[in-house]
Amino acid sequence: MAKSWINDRWLTDAIRTLDDGSKERVSPPSTVKRALSMHMDDPEKAKVPEEFRTDVFGKGSRWTVFWTENGERHRKNFRDYRKADEFWAGLECILSSRCFGFGHVVFSVLVIGACWVWLVGCWCGRT
Fold this sequence. Notes:
The chain is an alpha+beta fold. The protein is built from 3 helices and 5 strands. It has helices at residues 30-38, 81-95, 103-125, and strands at 3-8, 14-17, 23-26, 63-69, 72-78. The strands form 2 sheets. The protein has a 3-stranded antiparallel sheet with strand order 1-4-5, with helices on one face.
């Protein structure tokens, strides 16, 4: 069964130790996420607390879409969450075969269509 998900490469949950010695997971507050989304070009201006930063904070693309298919794990990085979400939605449709009940055929048609557009563009661009 194929599976896919979106991961935030820059933020992570913090693990805090309580007074009784137990540990709890704390997600980054929405204010931190909002500040970071407003300062994508310079993430340091967002003033994200160290406990919520990953090792790759501020480096490269922020969002990664992961998926497994036929036992292999794949990934694709995106700077913008909307683009990652669009890709993920299309991927979910294809992997789960909910697109008209035959996802592999839809994927093949999309690839063939993209290749056709590229070939026509190359051929028509030459004089």
